[in-house]
Amino acid sequence: MIGEDLQKFSESRVMRTIAIGPCHEQQPVMSADRDDEGGYSSPIEEGDTSQVSEFFKDRCVFITGVSGFVGKVLLEKLLRSCQRVRTVYVLMRPKDGQEPRQRLDQLFTCQVFSRLRKENSRLLTRVVPINGDISLPELGLSQSDTNMLAKQVSVVFHSAATVRFDEPLKKSVVLNMLGTRRVLELSKRMSKLAAFIHVSTAYSYCNRMEIDEIIYPENVSPQKVIDIAEWMDETMLESILPKLMDGRPTTYHYSKALAEHILATEGSGLPLAIVRPSIVTAAFKEPMPGWVDGVNGPSTFIIMTGKGLLRTMLVYKGSVVDWMPVDMVANLLLTTAWHIGTHRPDGVKVYNCTSGDLNKVTWLDIHRTATPIVNRFPSLHVTRYPGGSFKSHPLHNKIAIKLFHTLPAYVVDTLAWVFGHKTE
Ligand SMILES: NC(=O)c1ccc[n+]([C@@H]2O[C@H](COP(=O)([O-])OP(=O)(O)OC[C@H]3O[C@@H](n4cnc5c(N)ncnc54)[C@H](OP(=O)(O)O)[C@@H]3O)[C@@H](O)[C@H]2O)c1
Prior knowledge:
three-stranded antiparallel β-sheet; 14 helices; 42% helix; disordered N terminus; binds NADP nicotinamide-adenine-dinucleotide phosphate
């Protein structure tokens, strides 16, 4: 029974995080169900028979961030596996001269929707774009859209955020904290709200040695941070950032942690859950193995290695690479909505969506697995024969960077200049 599987999925997972150093070395933990062959089996069946699909039957769902990496896969999986969903309203802002309707039509031409387009394209007509922007008061929604969403929607997924690590605090506050508060305010007006699922990050509390599925206290309240971000100029903010962030490396991690606080304090009594993925990477199986949205994080590492450009990296070979396939994140988001909506647990549930110690993959494993693959299937744009190695000593790595990255770059630039080409 899929219901029993899901019950096991949500209750038997070990979700404890052991951080053994700075952020990139931490080791969050989660085990996904394994099928008979030891592979991952999606907890949501295709077709219309699972309890998750049953939960979404006739529901109206509201999603933010569908044009992003996680949002695209979430939307695709919801439509494909929960086909009796009534309407999916997606919040989109106008961008690059395109209105939300045009953006959505373009989104559906992405490869990630190719399976859906082929198998059941009419499902795409259930998706309705809503013109809005999380950086604006009341999400920039029209009064009629606000009223309609408040009346119709019963499940909310909030995935929109700025994920830039170098974002100034002001912008992170507006998008990640105020944006979350605004989606929460809208959700409070939803008379049928059954589940509000917020996408956070496993690194919100990367300043801690262990990260359990709880929200930890902060030294400064979110409202105080919002207030100072409003009146202080960026230079003043910069000077107090290290103290505020309390060991976290970026405004991204900090603002995501404070957004969790906003939900916990201002959303009490609501059916709320926070899902914290680690580093989201290419799909394991769905909608197609290996699908990834552009060049970011882990895919940058693979691409640069494949091109032969990346020759050295400061990595402790035994440390865990906490990459989480995007389809597993989407599945956990959907099953969390089902769990919250059907079980109505007390308080805010937190799920660390991480691999860590149980399904451990170390950098050494990545090296051993990826090296033969990039050699066998070389990139179309190989610059040098792929090679190089991880370094576990900072000085060793610095020297290797100078020799194998900087020096060749100068040589190429000089040659380009000599032959009249553009230099970087
Ligand atoms: N990717 C990861 O490795 C990772 C890991 C852990 C947690 N997460 C969390 O997962 C969530 C999704 O991340 P992602 O990787 O999908 O990010 P992404 O690809 O950068 O997508 C961000 C999404 O947020 C939307 N957005 C940004 N500013 C907006 C605004 N002002 N109004 C409306 N929408 C806005 C973007 O829409 P536009 O197209 O309009 O810009 C886009 O749809 C985030 O909450 C992130 O913190 C991601």
